[in-house]
Specification:
112 residues, alpha/beta, four-stranded mixed β-sheet, four-stranded antiparallel β-sheet, globular, Immunoglobulin-like
């Protein structure tokens, strides 16, 4: 009877070891940075994403900035396609479109 108890105990421990519940990993995020070219002559630009997340571009760059660069608007979300609209302060230029965010990616989107 002792052997049977040990065998059952070992089987239960083995099942517990191999059947641990794995938590779902959060979906990998990606980013898009919206920016203005220094030569564009644009003022501040407010960017609004389809989910109403908004940010303001306040600086101009001479080349494509990294995500999270100062004066740019960086949007972070799960991989997918997202709509955006943008409006230059004072009723200037407007933009509308979609952007594709990739897992762990950083896309730079220049508004011209």
């Amino acid at each position: 009877m002792k052997k049977l108890t040990y065998v059952v105990l070992i089987l239960i421990m083995g099942l517990m070891l191999f059947s641990t519940c794995k938590k779902d990993d959060p979906a990998p995020k990606g980013k898009v940075v919206f920016w203005n070219d220094a030569a564009s002559g644009l003022g501040n630009v407010t960017v609004t994403m389809g989910d109403n997340t908004a940010g303001i571009i306040t600086s101009d760059y001479t080349g494509s900035p990294d995500c999270d660069a100062a004066g740019c608007f960086t949007y972070t979300n799960n991989a997918g396609v997202y709509s955006y609209s943008a409006q230059e302060d004072g009723g200037g230029k407007t933009w509308h479109g979609t952007v594709t965010i990739t897992e762990n990616g950083c896309l730079a989107l220049r508004l011209m």
